């Protein structure tokens, strides 16, 4: 369960992504155009310390872009190259925001969801002293079999990242995780399916009513 807060954040998520996304090698869209937040989904951190959110945006008339981020209350040692920015949160204070493909918490969460048939976290927010469930703007599910063990987070030192057209490929320990960055007409994950065993995380949102593959997770045979 992800607990949301009625809070002011500076910079806003849209401002943050408007500045950061166009600097990335996978970016497709209008770098000077209006950035629109289409939908988002979250995963729970089992330790309750890290906010894990994936935001789906467009930049101008460009295709949908998938940007997973993590929110931490302190810097993540060794992950300096994955730091997007710091933000001020009116409830939680200063937060360090990371490109989640370099954060062990995200990699473990998305791999667990894909491999065990998991879903996005339930969203709750406190309104007038009552906990209210908020409807998700994106719904995701893994293709794996429910009941499997959760993936252990890798160390930062185990994470290796490379950028490919429309995708980010992460090797973390024995896992290979491919995050589709560009969700356009072509399925960028179609050419990433390895010979080894793999599962996918797929989802829908208002502009995408049919399942779209979002993340591929490969494991040793």
TrEMBL record:
Transmembrane segments: none annotated. Keywords: ATP-binding, Kinase, Nucleotide-binding, Transferase. It comes from the Bacteria. It holds the Pfam family Mak_N_cap. The keyword RNA-binding does not apply. The keyword Transferase applies. One of its GO terms (molecular function) is kinase activity. Residues 20-103 form the Maltokinase N-terminal cap domain. InterPro entries: Mak_N_cap. This is Maltokinase N-terminal cap domain-containing protein. It comes from Cryobacterium zongtaii.
